[in-house]
Amino acid sequence: MVSVNQLAVEFGGFSLFDDVSFLVNPKDKIGLAGKNGAGKSTLLKILAGIQSPSRGTVSVPKDIKIGYLPQHMVHDDTGTVWEEVEKAFDDLKRLEEQIEQLNHQLASRTDYESESYLDLIHKVSEKNDHLSLLGGGNYASDIEVTLKGLGFERSDFDRLTSEFSGGWRMRIQLAKILLQKPDVFLLDEPTNHLDIESIQWFEDFLKSYGGAVVLVSHDRAFLDNITRRTIEIQMGKIYDYKASYTEYLKLREERREQQLAAYRNQQKMIEDTEKFIERFRYQATKAVQVQSRIKQLEKIDRIEVDEFDNSSLKIKFPPAPHSGTITLEGKGLSKSYGDLNVLQDVDYAIERGEKVAFIGRNGEGKTTMARMIMDEISYTGMLKHGHQVKIGYFAQNQADLLDENLTVLETIDHVAVGDIRTKIRDLLGAFMFSGEAVEKKVSVLSGGERTRLAMVKLLLEPVNLLVLDEPTNHLDIRSKELLKQAVKDFDGTVVVVSHDREFLDGLVTKVYEFRNKKMKEHLGGIYEFLERKKLDSLKELEQKTKQNGSNASKAKAEKKSEAKVSYEERKEISKQHKKAQQLVHKCEEEIAVLEEAIEELDVQMQDVVNASDPEFVKKYQEKTAALESKMTEWENMQEQLESIEELKKQLG
Known about the structure:
Blueprint: E1 2-11, E2 14-24, E3 29-33, H1 40-47, E4 55-59, E5 66-69, H2 81-86, H3 90-108, H4 115-133, H5 140-149, H6 166-180, E6 184-188, H7 196-208, E7 212-216, H8 220-226, E8 229-234, E9 237-241, H9 245-280, H10 287-299, E10 326-337, E11 340-351, E12 355-360, H11 366-373, E13 380-385, E14 391-394, H12 408-413, H13 424-430, H14 447-458, E15 465-469, H15 477-489, E16 493-497, H16 501-504, E17 510-515, E18 518-523, H17 526-550, H18 552-565, H19 567-605, H20 608-611, H21 614-651
Parallel strand pairs: 3-7, 3-8, 5-6, 6-7, 12-16, 12-17, 14-15, 15-16
Antiparallel strand pairs: 1-2, 1-4, 8-9, 10-11, 10-13, 17-18
Family: Belongs to the ABC transporter superfamily. ABCF family. YbiT subfamily.
Keywords: ATP-binding, Coiled coil, Nucleotide-binding, Repeat
GO molecular function, one term: ATP binding
């Protein structure tokens, strides 16, 4: 479908790609792997036709539609969310207008037998067929489902796009691309501005999407859940694996081990051959054998071991100074921005040494709470820091706050005080800024490099509370893993605002969910929290349906709208219905086994010996008690199943 042939990209003598070739096939789900600066984003731009290579070609058939989502984009803030997203259907709307014009011409003519009239009918038929292929004119439902999946509420649809933050405007552009249904998606870090719920919806969408996907992401879980092929960019070359990201890592290690083994064997053979030649070079009786060995060496195809770029982050947070048992305590906390109430009467407490995650949809107050902890914004209520608590803060936009006129070295030199000044270059080296790289201006650094530099500033002073707001944005996967290990090893308290499931997994032991202006505490890790959320979703849907049904006067008006947005609900209910049916069936099988066992015991109970045996009687009582318990369990399950079936009927 898309063919890349002998691609080369050079910048002022530096080669980013050298003789790269590969194919993107229909339905391929490809993840591009490689460290920051390897060329992943550049390759996407070339595939999208935005950037030209130094040499080589990219061939795309004319009828193939490509949808490209860059990391950074210029937003068009001239209309509402709905109007902006509706632009995805501009071609379809133009086609509708053309059909309407042609139908108007047909209605005004009476020369039914003429050739031009028949041509007009043919054109209308042709355009109607094309319209049908594009999905017809019923696209409002698609728009609504997509916007809701990406986290928008119905009340947002008529708001101006200029009212939203950059992250939400990126979602608007993503919605447009999704609705255009391109043959090939080119997605550059699409999850950077999505919350966990939206990421899960987006995953489901891409997994079931019929087109091809080429994806750059530092979200390992996202890559594993979507991709089935990984193209690694390493030192200007590519390595193509028919595997997801985690499987690719194993295969890459196996490939290197095989290469090393073959390389060692070949080197041993070469060494032995050279020794033979050197030993018998001047002996006439061995001349034929020596010449044969020389020719053998000349013909040998030398094995090369793939060169791995092993430069990586080496992070270790300074030891945390001792602090009080309670690190943070909030009571009756509320925060509003004008008329918008974000948090209302929130209470929570975080103890020394705890590592907790702030989770929730964007706009629910996670970053607001982080800024309240840092006393950067005003609020009502009491927020108390524990005894001797010293905070290190990494803001979501920390990398953007760096002075672009300074060099890397100057940035750190301006804030470092005390003995650490003698170790600035060592510290920068640990964050992959060594040699001439420390003289680079901040203005020319990549997103990942800026994030690393901002992280260096965080390490300049010992703290016992780390507040990290989206610290992994723009970091490559290896750097994220090393940062995660450093945070795990940190002996102080940590609050992480993040949507990166892989980063949070095994790191945090408590989750605070921000929802409906509250903070709800969940004990356990991130995947335990997400599993519980799935189980709770049915109850939420039932409540929603009851609320809708309680207002009979609106039922008719909302019926059509409900049909538009109930796809995700129906999908979730179907899953729950199937699961409930399986549980009921399993319970019935267990009841049947118990009833059969009790019947046999009833027969045996007629024997006087058994009836007077305490052990036999105890066994009989245990079986009957188990049956009674299982019957109660079955009744509860049956009630739940009936409730789900009723809900399915109401949603159609």
